[in-house]
Write a structure and sequence with these properties.
alpha+beta, 2 domains, ATP12-like, 8% strand, single chain
């Protein structure tokens, strides 16, 4: 789509803050008003619109896309979105450790991941069943219920960020730690890529894998930025 406006600005609205292009309010793809909960998020999204060249490139507007998701999807399909995020309570990456032939990796995972699980145990009064290998091991009903309740308690904009983050991280525990301000993004990202980074240390890096991880890291940090700005 060609750029059709000269100026983009954030404007106070009846419900939060709106984005105006040449004085006209922006709507989402589902025709909902693009209303944001905080001035900082609105300003950041206005900056994305202002930075567009002659052609509007949605790939360079991650905050806008996440806001559209909050307003068009989460607000109208909240139970489905909560269910998708909460499903990681039974399949979190942190539950799976190296098998008997990978003792060094298993020890490294325990050193780096166990403190994060320890935080979750205390915060949510849950227990975890760990498995060595790739066979699925179900978590207790109480653990799944408590972690699901923690997801359900979040507002729509937080859920939009969490949906992106949990897919990139593969860990609901890590995402909840971000939401609760228990861990920061720079600390968590290497933990979420621990096995891949471990393999690189043993066998050397692969250019394609490194490039793919860099793309995912940029998406991860955009979602973290959205999370922070939507709450401050």
């Amino acid at each position: 789509m060609k750029r059709f406006y000269k100026e983009a600005a954030s404007v106070a609205a009846d419900t939060g803050f709106a984005i105006h292009l040449d004085g006209r309010p922006v709507k989402t793809p589902a025709r909902n008003p693009l209303h944001l909960p905080t001035a900082k998020l609105a300003e950041a999204i206005a900056t994305e619109w202002a930075a567009q060249d002659d052609e509007i490139d949605p790939a360079t507007m991650p905050l806008t896309a996440l806001a559209q998701g909050a307003l068009d999807q989460v607000a109208h399909e909240r139970n489905r979105i909560v269910g998708r995020i909460a499903s990681f309570s039974d399949s979190d990456m942190l539950y799976y450790r190296g098998d008997d032939s990978q003792q060094a990796l298993s020890d490294h995972q325990a050193e780096k991941w166990d403190p994060l699980l320890g935080w979750a145990r205390t915060r949510y009064d849950v227990s975890f069943t760990l498995t060595h290998g790739i066979m699925h091991q179900s978590q207790s009903e109480q653990t799944i219920a408590r972690l699901s309740e923690a997801v359900e308690a979040q507002d729509d904009f937080t859920l939009a960020a969490m949906l992106s983050l949990v897919g990139l991280a593969g860990s609901l525990i890590a995402v909840l730690a971000l939401v609760e301000n228990a861990y920061d993004a720079d600390t968590l990202w290497p933990l979420m890529n621990l096995e891949e980074l471990w393999q690189e240390q043993q066998w050397g890096s692969d250019d394609l894998a490194t490039q793919t991880r860099a793309v995912k890291q940029a998406e991860f940090h955009s979602a973290v930025q959205f999370l922070v700005l939507s709450r401050t």
